[in-house]
What does this fold into?
Amino acid sequence: MLTSEELAQLTGDEVPGAELAPIPFEPYDSALFDVLAVDGRATTAQLAEAAGISEGRAARRLAVLIRSRTLVIDLDLAHEVFGVTVGAQIYFAVAPARLHEVGEALARLPEVGFVAAMSGRHNLMASVACRDLAHLYEFMTGDNGTLDAIVSMEVVPLARMVKQSGGLIVDGRLIDPA
It folds into this structure.
């Protein structure tokens, strides 16, 4: 979890969920995106070279694209490297009057990477990452504050991760899918 100071450094004056005005694309933006799609750690010098612009301009443009949320950074992690060996999708049935409260509480937990409200028999879903099965069991049965509003839950453990949002995993390592 980030401290409030760390969060402020990352977000600046930005208000979470605030509407941002769209920014016009520059002719060289696609070159920046292409380089970052291959290597999200690309330097501003590499971005500048690919786009045919100065390094300073590349750095400023990258900052504008990120700040405007035109460019969103999404990354895949080889979880095993961090000691996280069990993932699961958990589907919750929550008292409707407490749905927002429980969703917010779940989102604050370090094991939870994603939470979404949905319709149907289960009205809340969370994606979790745990050290092992004992940790997953502890997560499911532990006292997590406002989670007393959970009526039921269905846990779907992930037996083996083959592909994340963009990367393939072989022997616990992310590989280039190309």
Summary: The CA atoms of residues 93 and 122 lie 4 Å apart. The chain has a mean pLDDT of 83. The beta strands are 86-94, 112-117, 124-130, 150-158, 168-170, 173-175. The longest strand covers residues 86-94.
